[in-house]
Amino acid sequence: MGVFDSKSSENTNIMNGLSSKEVKKRLLKYGYNEIVKRKKVSPIKIFILQFNDFIVWVLLSATIISAFMGETADAVTILIIIIMDAVLGFIQEYRTEKSLESLRELASPTAKVIRDGKKIIVKAREVVIGDLVEVEAGDRIPADCVILEGNNIRSDESILTGESVSAEKRPHYGEKKPSSENLLYMGCNVTHGKGKARVITTGMDTEMGKIADMLQQIEAEKTPLQQKLDKLGEWLVYGCLIVCAVVTITGILRGEDAYKMFLVGVSLAVAAIPEGLPAIVTVSLALGVQRMMKRNALVRKLPAVETLGCTNVICSDKTGTLTQNKMTVKKIYVSERLLSVTGDGYDSIGSITYNGIHLNPLMDEDFNKLLECSVLCNDASITYDNKKRIKYSGDPTEIALLVMALKAKVNRENLEKKYKILKENPFDSDRKMMSIICFDNKVRYMYAKGALESILKKCSSILINGQIKELNEDIRKKITAVNDNMAQEALRVIAFAYKKIQNNDTKEDNLIFIGLAGMIDPPRKEVLDAVIECKIAGITPVMITGDHKLTAKAIASELKILDKDGLVITGEELDKMDDKKLDAMINKIRVFARVNPSHKFRIVKAYKRKGFCVAMTGDGVNDAPAIKEADIGVSMGITGTDVTKEASSMILMDDNFATIVAAVKEGRVIYDNIRKFIRYLLSCNTGEVLTMFLSSLLYLPIPLLPIQILLVNLATDGLPAIALSLEMGEKDVMEKRPRGKNESIFSEGLWKKIIIRGVLIGFCTVAAFSMSLYLFQGNIKLARTIALCTLVMSQLFHVFECRSERHSIFKIGFFTNIYLVFAVASSMIMLILVVYNTYLQRIFYTQNLNLIQWAIVLGFSGTISLVNSFYWYNK
Ligand code: ATP
């Protein structure tokens, strides 16, 4: 942080900015441009926090009691189990914290600065005093700055002042101290205009720093599912405690040792309460977020991961999201002639011809005017790198126009020498046009370009063969027909106009129409497949665009978004419709064309009224309300403004529609995985409780000793459940309908599956136990070892079934989740060691099993899983 000092700021050159050497010096001197640094939770603290848990307290008290009773082996083993549980919990939480940290890093705001004469994008925290920053509508201001140049700049300062109307700003000239009208404040958003400003204070010294920690961060806010699971967890704790108390009390009443029964109760509570569940849910959400990041979708809010799986409508912008945003002018209409333009992409090699003859702008005044307009009324730029390679920056529509001019050998530099640009009325999606005022030392001109409807409204005459003629109705119709023809061929059309400014008339009216340019913007290659995938998955893709109805229609048909039953509605038609009518037809609308950002808000509302779960994309500053309103607000990583990014729950790093679909798929996989391990954990825990409960009901001896119950818990609850959260998703995950927004996690009979399997595990373990007691002449140690192995093995078999709710493990393949194979193998090794290692036998009260005894174990634990898997295999 730091404050303005005239010396450090003055040596900022308005053209070149600071040098990178100077930036380094200033960073060292003033530190980073940050408000409050988020305190990182230290790993030690995370580890210690693992012990601050109800279950751990119960276990610790059991340890102390065991130690007092002289049962040192029990006490030590329980302690080891507590530590191992804590280590597992630590690994889960540490990973979560790390991944959230890296998300915060990635989502941190950026700034456009000019350093060493080049415009670069840096992290806002790396901005230093004296830096020259470029700001434009939609940008978040990185530090407090004084405006040096710019037009019509307005800034939303509501977070500082509470004032909802954006403040007008102007450049600061002369010696006078800059006033608030010359200053832009950190954290506020530029809503209009663009300009250059110099940083005067950073970090805690900024106005924002003074009112401190308003910095938007990604918080590990709990998702609705996590909240519901927390509630469920509470109920389970009460339920388990009651059952454990019943088991303990009936045991004592039947004359069992009270101390032993107390330990049984405690261990059972530990085994029955799925204490790892919340942590695994968080880990699987966080891991999912990381996987999405690899696929270019950056999730800013954890609940979005869950909502993604419910998405059934995706409203997507056209330009750049469905299309490549790499435009090439193909046709020009000027002086009633339709010219052809050759060449591909941004390659400046190509020609402009009329009836096969090259056109020379020097010999063709109207054509020349069109080229001048397209170059002067243009914010994109062309530069050359060290190797003389051409580099473009700016809006692709405008780059395409610069490339078109290059093909006609019209050079921007030469034009800018002739005309000095005095003012710009920037493009915005509501007006769908822009204009500039320039001066050639004699006359001032206005040049304008934009959507045909916007430009034509402001024209009163037309330039034809060097003559200015009245723009009558017939000519208007003719121009509109040419525009429609181009649009039908999926071309994006820009209209051009100009006027000589007389008597200071700088209004955008009485313009002279010059002509049109039609450019292609090819669809992104992967979008067609993504659209088809959406449809199979029961998701409706909808195009929302500011572009012409016919252009939108042509591209939507090519991408199969629009089929023969689908409707195309324009913003104008939408304005004439009341909500009732819109609701009645919204199911059929596939394309909204020529819409303004404000329409988007209405569209989201309509979908939500009809119960849809809607994802909506946006890039411009005015898209923010719609993005905020949508169930999943999606902003563009490349072209998106800071304001939209902050309003969104997900950022597309590649601006690509296919990425939204990939994220939806990932959202479904994560949700499925959560169901999988909930099914596993709850059915296993039910099985464990029932084993103890049934035996006490049947007046059998205690089937498992406390230490054995804790072992079952350790071998089955930890690693296998985590491994289930790492499932990569089933092949047909995008062939199901989206789930409902309010659907319970236990829907589609999951409850039934959990209870039936829990009961079966309990019954089988008790059956194996009582059968062994009978077969082996009441050898209780042996019977308990068999019960222990049956209970563990039932769960290790069952975990494979939990990998899918629709397919048999024989179809999915055992090795498709290698983590699970390792987890199960390590649990089995643990069990075998406990059964055969003489030292562990003493701790866990077990004994060697022979083949017949293993046959009993496997018979009782494996049969149900085997039958069940065959049943699903043949389905
Ligand atoms: P989408 O919402 O799918 O991204 P879009 O990019 O076509 O659609 P806008 O950027 O709002 O939507 O553009 C609307 C219309 O404004 C375009 O059809 C075009 O005629 C015109 N237009 C677009 N960019 C410019 C520009 N830089 N200068 C002047 N007119 C433009």
UniProtKB/TrEMBL annotation:
Superkingdom of the organism of origin: Bacteria
Gene3D superfamilies, per the entry: Calcium-transporting ATPase, cytoplasmic domain N, Calcium-transporting ATPase, cytoplasmic transduction domain A, Calcium-transporting ATPase, transmembrane domain, HAD superfamily/HAD-like
Compartments in which it is found: Endomembrane system
Domain Cation-transporting P-type ATPase N-terminal span(s) in chain numbering: 3-71
Keyword ATP-binding applies: yes
UniProt cross-references to Pfam families, sorted A to Z: Cation_ATPase, Cation_ATPase_C, Cation_ATPase_N, E1-E2_ATPase
GO cellular component: endomembrane system; membrane
InterPro entries from the UniProt entry: ATPase_P-typ_cation-transptr_C, ATPase_P-typ_cation-transptr_N, ATPase_P-typ_cyto_dom_N, ATPase_P-typ_P_site, ATPase_P-typ_TM_dom_sf, ATPase_P-typ_transduc_dom_A_sf, ATPase_P-type_domA, HAD-like_sf
Keyword presence, Endoplasmic reticulum: no
Keywords: ATP-binding, Magnesium, Membrane, Nucleotide-binding, Phosphoprotein, Translocase, Transmembrane, Transmembrane helix
Membrane-spanning intervals of the chain: 46-69, 75-94, 235-255, 261-287, 754-776, 812-839, 851-873
Membrane topology reported for the UniProt record: Multi-pass membrane protein
GO MF annotations in UniProt: ATP binding; ATP hydrolysis activity; P-type calcium transporter activity
Family stated for the protein in its record: Belongs to the cation transport ATPase (P-type) (TC 3.A.3) family. Type IIA subfamily.
Annotated PANTHER family: CALCIUM-TRANSPORTING ATPASE (PTHR42861)
Protein name, entry field: Ca2+-transporting ATPase
Organism encoding this protein: Caloramator quimbayensis
